[in-house]
Amino acid sequence: MDSAWSATLGTSPVARRFAIVLLAVLTVTVQPALAQERARGPNVLVIMADDLNNDMGTFGHPIVKTPNLDRLAKRAVRFDRAYTQFPLCSPSRVSLLTGLRPDTTKIHELQTDFRTILPDVQTLPQMFRRNGYLTARVGKIYHYGNPGQIGTSGLDDPASWDVFVNPRGVDKDEESVLTNLTPARQLGSALAYYASPAPDGEHTDGKVAAETIALLEKNKDRPFFIGAGFYRPHCPFIAPRKYFDLYPLDRIPAPSAVAGSLQPPAAWFTNPPNWDVGEQGQREAIRAYYASITFLDANVGRVLDALDRLKLSDNTIVVFISDHGYHLGERGQWMKQSLFERSARAPMMIAGPGVSARGRATTRIVEFLDIYPTLADLAGLSAPPGLHGRSLKPLLVNPQAAWNHPALTQVRRGAGTATFMGYSVRTEKWRYTEWDSGARGVELYDEVNDPDELRNLATDSRHRPIVDEMQRVLRRMRGN
Question: How confident is the model at residue 257 (pLDDT cuts 50, 70, 90)?
Answer without folding.
Answer: low
